[in-house]
Amino acid sequence: MERIEIFKGDITTLKVDAIVNAANKTLLGGAGVDGAIHRVAGKELLAECHTLNGCNTGEAKITKAYNLPCKFVIHTVGPIWYGGKNFEEDLLTSCYKKSLELAVNNNIETIAFPNISTGVYGFPKNKAAVIAISEIKKFLCNNKSIKKIIFATFDEENFKIYQHNLA
Ligand code: APR
Question: In a mutational test of the pocket of ligand 1, which residue from 5, 33, 56 has the highest number of ligand atoms less than 8 Å from its CB?
């Protein structure tokens, strides 16, 4: 638990090794946290994303971070919520798993996640946070290389949800 933190604010300001982007399958930017990350990183991030040939839901790809204060951006594509009968929970679980795998393979020691899929993609915030916390705890039990995982919550609602579920 000491390796897990909650941060209230904009994920693009964090000086961690990597921040995770809640992207879409094109990886070519969008609104929400995707928009914020591309805005701060600058057009070189988009240029690198153009070379990645998109990303499937539940998968993750890594890029440099350019004008962001972090070193890497891990782009993952969360599921759109259609009511819970389209394997949304499994796909969201996969986003966390694949992002953490990429982090380990790139010697990343500190990483921040937004509440993936809970904005534009409509995934229920509390259910998503429970999945995120459960995956992160499972991962930290078996992995010593990552020193800190931060849940970056942009709004009060998410902040309270993570506080409640981590208590
Ligand atoms: N820092 C941290 N969290 C943020 C920020 C930010 N700057 N901006 C938004 N968030 C939070 C939202 O409050 C939400 O809880 O990130 C969470 C994810 O919301 P979205 O960014 O809307 O992402 P998602 O629901 O996964 O939808 C992805 O939206 O922006 C487009 O291109 C993106 O098509 C993709 C879709």
Answer: 33
